[in-house]
Design a protein that fits this description.
By secondary structure, the protein is of the alpha/beta class. The chain has 18 helices and 17 strands. Helix content is 38%, strand content 15%. Helix 1 packs across helix 5, helix 8 (273-285) packs parallel to helix 9 (306-314) and helix 12 runs parallel beside helix 14. The two termini are 31 Å apart. The structure holds cobalamin and iron/sulfur cluster (SF4).
Length: 500
């Protein structure tokens, strides 16, 4: 079968760096393993219009990925495809997976989307591919209309999908089980991407001297349910690959693909510490520890004990992120993070003592915040003094508890999914006394108070990356420290496209 996987163009008014989509790389890999002819169309790096691509490749099945700010682009892409080619179109990813808000229905009800895959995709995608192939082999009428004919009952028992039959009815089947054995998955198929076109293969690594960086995922899921985090829409069950399985891919990234930096993308890599000790042993034994790697998304501070961090440092770990979120003890209790500030202090201390760099993620504008609690967060960031402090304004993503709270007690300032980004330095909701103006003021203050200190300035200007990317860094600094006056050209162009 001919299968196309699409990453819709991410239309943000920012100079973002492009990176291959790991979810599509996994889906492409399982399709290849099944024997399909696979093409990935990443609109971020393609020159060709999607309609031309489809007319040339003539796919039997199309899959499109979508997070929240991308979903309307995903619909536009699906519509453009259906205008020129009759093919079943499947959409998946974090946004259409949110059943609590009916966002699977929202996509399935679009005339040009046939099936929505909710949650983890590989097994469900394989099942869909198999059914489409059987149908194409045995049915005389090969149209999508026939494929979705309710009389044929093709989709009745496929778990993890929401689908629309050709009479316009939408059905939600039961959830699929999370993939139990992650070792059974093939490695992400990077060979399907135009790798030379990406400006940064792994955005959170240093990219020093244009180093070739790659991502790796060693576990999936998270047992915690923080109120602001979209992870809550994915399986609660944390599952990990064995260290032996991880090391094989790691070796492939370094030895075959020439990785010079690796970003570990796990949400909570250190849930089982014995696994990390074993992984560290293997990295050292295999001589792979010369390639620096980073926990880019944060590990749990309560499980970052000093001997483990020392061992990981020996195994090549250069830097680790922690989700600190807030510096205020009362706000901390409300976000279900299940951690206290002394534990976080200890984790940062452990890292510094063993020579690891740190990243702190902080949120400005959680529900219930005041000027004082936001200032506590800024002060705590300064106290912890990570190499990188990342402040973001709370963006309530659908499906999270914060979204629920804001809908009930606050005022959402965004109505368009395309605005669900936190690159724009704009507050996305107000609640009680917490106005958008206050949150935006505290956000800019956070960056100013943290970075405009002698220590961070010296650290930044001493890095090669700072000078290599000077114009970009200055643009980011101007945007971050000072209030932005007007909309960019790109933003105006997006708005001119009208609604879908
Ligand atoms: C790495 C990462 C990034 C990277 C790269 C993203 C990329 N293009 O690969 C960067 C830093 C660029 C990034 C940016 C943003 N991100 Co991000 N990111 C992640 C992170 C940590 C890992 C993504 C990943 O590789 N996961 C592993 C793969 C295997 O999973 P996956 O991509 O979700 O794909 C699986 C399923 O979703 C499904 N699936 C996905 N697509 C499809 C399509 C089909 C057809 C099918 C069948 C199935 C399917 O099957 C896949 C395999 O199981 C996730 C958190 C997480 N744990 O997923 C957040 C996450 C995806 N990001 C998020 C957000 C909000 C953003 C931003 C919007 C933030 C912002 N700054 O405004 C931007 C958007 C950028 C963009 N270009 O779209 C949210 C999304 C929430 C939502 N409702 O949309 C997440 C879930 C974080 C969170 N916990 O809140 N991100
Ligand atoms: S913020 Fe981190 S710990 Fe909390 S639910 Fe999300 S991934 Fe898990």
């Amino acid at each position: 079968m001919r299968v196309a996987l699409i990453n819709p163009r991410f239309r943000l008014p920012i100079d973002t760096r492009t990176t291959p989509h790991l979810g599509l790389a996994y889906l492409g890999a399982v399709s290849k393993q099944r024997g399909d002819t696979v093409r990935i169309f990443d609109a971020d790096v393609e020159d060709q219009p999607v309609q031309d691509f489809v007319l040339e490749f003539k796919p039997d099945l199309v899959g499109i990925t979508a997070n929240t700010p991308q979903v309307k682009q995903a619909w536009r892409t699906a519509k453009a495809i259906k205008e020129v080619w009759d093919v079943p179109i499947v959409i998946g990813g974090p946004h259409p997976s949110v059943t609590s808000e009916g966002l699977d229905f929202e996509s399935a009800e679009r005339p040009y989307i046939d099936i929505v895959v909710r949650g983890e995709g590989e097994a469900v995608w394989l099942e869909i591919s198999k059914r489409v192939e059987d149908f194409k082999r045995h049915s005389e009428d090969k149209s999508t209309r026939a494929l979705m004919d309710p009389e044929r009952h093709i989709w009745d028992d496929v778990l993890g999908i929401t689908y629309k039959t050709s009479d316009g009815q939408v059905y939600r089947n039961m959830d699929a089980k999370p993939i139990a054995d992650l070792d059974s998955l093939p490695w992400p198929a990077y060979d399907l991407f135009k790798m030379d076109r990406y400006t940064n293969l792994q955005p959170a690594t240093d990219h020093v001297d244009g180093a070739r960086s790659f991502s790796i995922l060693t576990s999936r899921g998270c047992p915690y349910r923080c109120t602001f985090c979209s992870q809550s829409i994915m399986p609660i069950k944390w599952r990990a690959r064995t260290p032996e399985n991880v090391i094989e891919e790691w070796r492939h990234l370094v030895r075959d693909l020439g990785a010079q930096e690796i970003g570990v993308l796990d949400d909570s890599a250190n849930i089982r510490k014995d696994r990390l000790y074993r992984l560290a042993d293997l990295l050292i034994a295999e001589g792979l520890n010369h390639v620096p790697w980073i926990f880019v998304n944060g590990i749990r501070a309560n499980l970052a004990e000093k001997p483990l961090m020392a061992k990981l440092k020996q195994a090549g770990l250069k830097r680790t992120a922690f989700g600190v979120e807030t510096g205020n003890p009362e706000i901390m209790k409300t976000i279900d993070k299940n951690i206290d500030h002394d534990t976080i202090r200890q984790a940062f201390k452990n890292c510094k003592e063993v020579g690891l760099e740190t990243i702190g993620f902080f949120i400005i504008g959680l529900p219930g915040e005041t000027r004082e609690t936001m200032q506590d967060t800024i002060n705590f960031a300064i106290e912890l003094d990570p190499l990188i402090a990342n402040f973001s304004m709370m963006t309530p993503y659908p499906g999270t508890k914060v979204y629920e709270i804001v809908k009930r007690q606050g005022r959402l300032l965004v109505t368009d999914w395309e605005d669900y980004v936190f690159f724009e330095q704009k507050a996305r909701y107000e609640m009680g006394e917490m106005t958008a103006e206050l949150v935006e003021e505290m956000y800019r203050r956070a960056y100013r108070q943290f970075y405009l200190r002698p220590g961070p300035i010296l650290r930044r200007v001493k890095t090669k990356d700072f000078w290599l990317n000077l114009p970009r860094n200055l643009r980011i600094a101007r945007r971050t420290f000072f209030k932005k006056a007007e909309k960019t050209e790109l933003r105006r162009a997006i708005e001119a496209q009208g609604s879908i």
